[in-house]
Every structure is written in structure tokens, then in C-alpha cells.
Design goal:
The chain is mainly alpha-helical. The protein has a single domain (5-120), classed as 23S rRNA-intervening sequence (de novo design (two linked rop proteins), Up-down Bundle). Helices cover 83% and strands 0% of the residues. The chain has helices spanning 5-26, 32-51, 57-83, 89-120. Helix 1 (5-26) packs antiparallel against helix 4, helix 2 (32-51) runs antiparallel to helix 3 (57-83) and helix 3 (57-83) runs antiparallel to helix 4. The relative contact order is 0.15.
């Protein structure tokens, strides 16, 4: 069976987000921003997974766009955590790089799908 790169990367990102949330909650005593990041960061993979069982092309496309929006939101929370000195530069860059990789993959997939659908219209 062929590996689905976006499914695997989004799941690994979600697992890293969960660990970061636990660290932020327990070590830094930061609850509000970290909970927002937990929600958006784990939602990326959940929506990609849902897209695999989409009822239509439109449903598939919509789920991937939701994943893209959640990834962008996660980048925002990571930026806030870094710029408020809660995350170190190293912690931020590691998570942010992974987040941006997901964003790039999702942009590529949604752009291809959107272009393909427009050509068929």
C-alpha cells in the first residue's frame, strides 16, 4: 500500500502539537494560547482524514481547504507564542517549519484540484 504523505505528516504534526501543549500547560503554565494551538494543530489531520471519505469532489475540496485554514491558524498561534517569549527560537522554528511544510503541501493539493475542476467546467 502506498503511503499518503499528507496524512502521515499531519498526524506527526498533531502528535508534536499534543506534546507541545502538555509542555506549555505544565512547564510554562500557559493555557489559553496553547489550547487554541492544540485545537487548530490537531484539526489539520482530522480534516485531511475526513477528506479521504468525502461524499463528493466538492466535499473533498472543502475538507482540504478547512485543513489549510487550520494550518494557517496554527502558524499564527505559534508566532504569538514565540513573539511573547513563551517559545524559544529553536522550539518555534522546529514547529513552524513543520507547519509551513503542511501549508505548502495543502496549497499544492488544493491548487491542483481547483485548477483541474475549473478546466472541467
Amino acid at each position: 500500500m502506498k503511503k499518503n504523505v499528507i496524512l502521515e505528516k499531519s498526524k506527526q504534526f498533531a502528535l508534536r502539537i499534543i506534546k507541545l501543549y502538555i509542555y506549555l500547560r505544565d512547564e510554562k503554565r500557559e493555557v489559553i494560547l496553547s489550547k487554541q494551538l492544540l485545537r487548530s494543530g490537531t484539526s489539520i489531520g482530522a480534516n485531511i482524514r475526513e477528506a479521504q471519505r468525502a461524499q463528493s469532489d466538492a466535499d473533498f475540496h472543502a475538507k482540504l481547504f478547512i485543513s489549510l485554514k487550520e494550518a494557517d491558524e496554527s502558524a499564527y498561534w505559534l508566532e504569538l507564542l514565540h513573539e511573547s517569549a513563551i517559545l524559544t527560537k529553536e522550539q518555534f522554528e522546529s514547529m513552524y517549519d513543520d507547519c509551513n511544510e503542511l501549508i505548502k503541501l495543502l496549497v499544492s493539493i488544493t491548487r491542483k484540484k481547483f485548477t483541474h475542476n475549473k478546466c472541467n467546467s
